[in-house]
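Obj.: predict assembly geometry.
Materials: sequence records (below).
Method: joint structure prediction, all chains together.
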Amino acid sequence: MVEVSKLVFAKPSKVSKVRKILPFLTVVSIYLTLPAIGLRGFWIDVLTRVNIFLLITLSLDLYSGTTFYLNLGVPFTVGVSAYTLALLNRYLGVPVEYSILPSAITSTIFSFTIFIPSLRVRGAYFSILSLLLPIILAGLVTSQPFSLYLGGEGGISYFPLFFSYARALPAGERVFFLQASHFYLSAAVAIVAYIICYKIAYSDFGFMMRSIGQDELLAEATGINTFRVKLIGFIASSFLSALAGALYAAMRPPITADIFVPANTLVPPLTAVILGGMGTIVGPAIANYLTLIIYEILWGVLGSWRIILYMCLLIVLVLLRPQGLIYYLYLKMKQVFSVRIFKHLGGV
Amino acid sequence: MDKILICDSITKRFGGLIAVSRVSVEVSRGELLGLIGPNGSGKTTLINLISGVLEPDEGRVLFEGRDITKLKPHARVALGISRIFQGMRVYPYLPVYYNIELSARSVFKDARLARSKTIWALTTTKLLAESAELPVNLTPYKLKMVELARALVTNPKLVLLDEPFAGLSPEEVGEVIKIVRKLNESGIAFIIVEHKLRYLMKLVERVVVLNEGRKIFDGSPSEAMNSEEVSRVYLGVM
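Observations (raw structure tokens):
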């Protein structure tokens, strides 16, 4: 009893805390120095997009990866947030800098209001409803009379985030300023979101979400208010997706109906979640960077065939390794490295 | 004696089938009640109605004088009604510790109190050594202990045990009985659904017998054993 009490109540020492977060800090530090050591042009844009996609991946993993309520309505939340930002700018003249948070909150409220009835029902009903809504919205945006106000096929154009600051700079520095500022903002948001999601997923609340995924009736019958847990989880997850939509719209004008297309905003994060290991947060985060960077590299080799490759990868993964791959490899690697480092320090 | 639970003429239908028909059962504080009957007699349905997994079509369920008929299962747990399910029902991918602590955490807002209660439940059920194990590595007896620990960790006043001896050896049944007796001495009431009558009849103070959804007997175990009606419907003796 004493040993378990110690295990449960003891606070980890500072040394063990540092040892735990040191690899994370190292990776983040190296990543943040990339623009300073010469990353320019196309690839800095790619990494900015991947940072934003990390929010969607985390959003999917935090909710669907733990509760197994597959939320296919991510493009709806992302799209509504992006269009809210664009419309605030076009019709009310609100600068994009000030409309990111209001757009994300608006979209979260929209998603919450629309999906709340489906949270009571398990399985296909929730997934089907969540999948249909973005398709309906994509149709509305490009159909009259809505297309007159929502930009139709061409979308809505406006100046990107921080453009008012970039305008004051010499012409040669403007593009890099915009790219670097977008990269750093998206990276900062992604890092904070990752830490918060990790904390939630491995907290008591996170384990309650997992218990719902494993046996919802048991969870409810043994004291867990499953509806409340699902609701809070869904709101947190929706806010992440909505934030991704608002950031994406702020940095990548014009915004078009393409944002509602699941192949653009759902398939890549979903692949990352399944490949990474559902509910692990670490695995999907690593998989998000790996798959999206490889996806861009493949653009030059395969062109539009890469989406077919993505779909095939999803099918193979679901059939052969539904528990994911990256998290498993991550744990193996961590084990090997920690033993080596320990040996090097004379610990073993 | 002070009545902790009153099922007042409750009925549950599944389409055309009447699973429980106008059943009234009362349980006193600290009582050990056996609930028996042939397969399909409505025992598990009655347990589901008391724990809130099902809502009755007619009648009321009162707990400590309060009408809880419309209350959700999690809210009933917070009031003091815990249960274990028929068969082994645990979270397969969560360690034993979390299988138990999550229930404590949902009832006690104070995390330290929830942890203390979890350690107490692990100690009571002799599961401390297995607290980091996944359920897949446990024997059926240990899994039953996980379920029992999870039911106890929420400070229950009434525990519903649905076939707690199923799949256990006589020695293991003896261990479960010891724990139930010890907890009962501390004032916890039990409703035990069980087919292994030779163990149950020695353990409980009173027996309710169901047949085809109706209550046909309510009395002491010895009276039940001598009842012609019970022998006829339960044991198939004419």
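Conclusions so far: Residues 344-348 of chain A have pLDDT under 50 and may be disordered.
To do: check interface contacts against the pulldown list.
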